[in-house]
Each structure stands twice: as C-alpha cells, then as structure tokens.
Amino acid sequence: LIAVLGLVLYGTTAMLPLLMQNLLGYTAYNSGLALSPRGIGAFVTTIIVGRVAGRYVSNRVVISTGVVILATASFLLGGLDLSVPMSRLAWLSVVNGVGVSMMFVPLATSTMGRLSKEEMSNATGIFNLMRNLGGSAGISALTTIIARATQAHQALLVHNIATTNPAYLQQLSYLKGILIHQANPVLAAHRAEALIATDLGRQASILAYMGSFRMLAVLCIAVTPLVFFLKRPKGSRIAMAH
Fold this sequence. Notes:
Distance between the termini: 18 Å
Structural class: mainly alpha
Strand content: under 5%
Number of strands: 0
Order of helices and strands: HHHHHHHHH
C-alpha cells in the first residue's frame, strides 16, 4: 500500500509540472502555484486524521476512504484537456493532498502499531524504502508510458491530416489566411502545416497523460482490498506509531 501511495504521489508530482509547462504553456512559477494547494490540503487533513484515526474511526475506514479519494483525484486528472483552467488544477491538487494524508497517517499507525520497540527502527526503514521504491518506479514507468503512448496516439491522429478531411482543409485554409499577411503564399502554407502538426503533437501528448492518470486511478482501486487485511494497532502503540 505504501509503495502504491509513493507511486501515485511522486508520479503525479513529477508529471503534472511537465504537463503544465510543456503543453499548457505555464511558467515554472505558475505550475508551482497550481500545485501548491496540495500542501494545504495535506497539512489540514494530517492534523485531523492524526487525532481521529484509530481512536474514533477505524484505520481501515480512513485508509480505504483515502484510497477512494486519491483514485477520484487521479481519475479527474485523466479528464484534463488543453484548455483546463488553473483553478481546476488547484482544486484537484487539494483533493490529491487530502487523499494522500488520509492514507499515510493511519497506514503508518497500522504498520508500526503492533511492533515492539526493538523492531520499530527496522520497520520504519523498510516502510520508507517501499515508499521511495514505489515513487522511483512510478516516475520511471509513467515517463516511459507517456512517451510511448504519445507516439501511439500521434500515429492514430495523423490519419486525420489528409486532403480528404474537410475539417483539416478548413483549418489549413484559416491558418493560411492569417499567415498570408506575414509571408508569401508558399511560405504561409508551410507554416500553416507546421502549426497543425505541432497542435497534433500536443493533442497526442495530452491523451497520453490522460491515460496515465486513469491508470493510476485503476491501480488505487485495485489495491483497496488490501486495506481490509490490516490488523488493529495495539492501544499502547498508537501514539508511538504517530
């Protein structure tokens, strides 16, 4: 569970800035602004969950709720397009932060809550190792998946750039009409075709990102049954686990 959490957390943290800067035209500062609300959601949720999980609400309930919230955030990220406003990205970041915090705190409690003091240090190391391994593997896998999916989508979309497609001819004519005032007709036609090819590449990339985020949502739902195998922490270990 912590490996999947690391995969989703670090995977989205690495991929979203690339999406915003490469496809949406955000500066590094603006992409940071869009992602920063996740920290606010995580901060507030951690305080609340740390006080109620295991005492008033079962850890399994809190973790499973966090998994569903994280899956929902990932699924909603899979519905982005090239015209998405920053406000929507910011709200999705908040939801993502809430889901991560609802998983992390009670998961750490459940992991450490039944161990002796002598076992605690080794268990903590393994716990953090699995989170970092999940994050590293997630970033590597998502980068590869997005690169290959972009090529696949581009190979499919390029068939729409044909003289038999009325939409393509209309867009080409529209762009040439704009560019004709900046260059001769031949150069204007070449520039119009280049603009359409660039836009096709951006569309292929956003489709690849959407598919990757939806894959993360499916992964979250797939590991949800593991939550119900967790045992209740011993009462004397709850505070120590936190």
